[in-house]
């Protein structure tokens, strides 16, 4: 019943479900980790960096599969129908027909984010945006490691400040708790905070630093070359 559900929400065991959305930070951590670990895993003093390849390779890889999924999604009307088909599926199809191109520019988490094509692709947009920042960070780490670490710390502080400002301005809860928000606050928190790049810059930056340290000291961790 509804009463039992709300009682369960107050129990400690429900915290796993309530904080499940934080699991997305693992993707940002892994993305940051791989960027620096792959760059420094080889036993050379100064790793080479090919900027066009570093940017184009992930863009082409992610864009191809995004376009493939969007194309398959737009073909859904060929395989389904029903009395409620238009009400439930129609709006999502129309969003993809009108705004599929936003996904190619990876700006769907900022531009018309409340009515974007395939909501879950905000993750790809945020990772691509952070990837562009990471290219600059990696280049500086190669030239001046100390300045690179200072830049990473600065980025994290700016991200924290942005999150704090958004929470304060919109009077959002201090912790992510979508399941407790009403029909107005929930979408507001989603569109103004959760899908934005700055909300995940911390875990991404930790991944960058972790990958760099482990790659530079991989012998201490008994990693193979």
UniProtKB/TrEMBL annotation:
Gene name linked to the record: nrf-6_21
Keyword Transmembrane: yes
Designated name of the protein: Nose resistant to fluoxetine protein 6
Keyword Transmembrane (UniProt): yes
Stretches that traverse the bilayer: 12-38, 59-79, 119-142, 149-169, 189-215
Molecular function (Gene Ontology), one example: acyltransferase activity, transferring groups other than amino-acyl groups
Highest taxon of the lineage: Eukaryota
Keywords in alphabetical order: Membrane, Transmembrane, Transmembrane helix
Pfam families found in the cross-reference section: Acyl_transf_3
Span of domain Acyltransferase: 14-219
